[in-house]
Amino acid sequence: MDLSKLPIKDIYDLVKEGEIDPLKAIIVLKEIEKKAKEYKSKIDDIALDEITKYGREGTSIDGYSVSVRSAAGRWDFKHISEIQDLEKQLKELKEKHKASYNQMLRNLTTLGEGGEVIIPANFKHGKDIIVITKNK
Questions:
Q1: What is the pTM (predicted TM-score) of this model?
Q2: Closest Cα partner for 100 from 115, 119, 79, 87?
């Protein structure tokens, strides 16, 4: 289904032309996104049953190729104490360098236990985003 061929104005064009308040448009799009995720989640199992009728190669519908593949597997190292210990050390090391960054902001230098200078971690600030929460 080609959404661009639907006989409705694009919401972006409506905002751009001043026909819709951009904040209201963001709220509407957020609600559409939420509902789309909810409906997709509800339909996924039914669609998976349907696509398996076509075999692993799948089928083509409305210009889209639809097929089945296995999601990536995950490795689990929680039972390996050596890895757990190293991950804990890495976390502590990262925290030390984060703290050095915070000290640097106050024009202070952080020294390690042996008197060595702790190099501050780099910090990249996030961009401003719009936060939408529904009032109760």
A1: 0.63
A2: 119
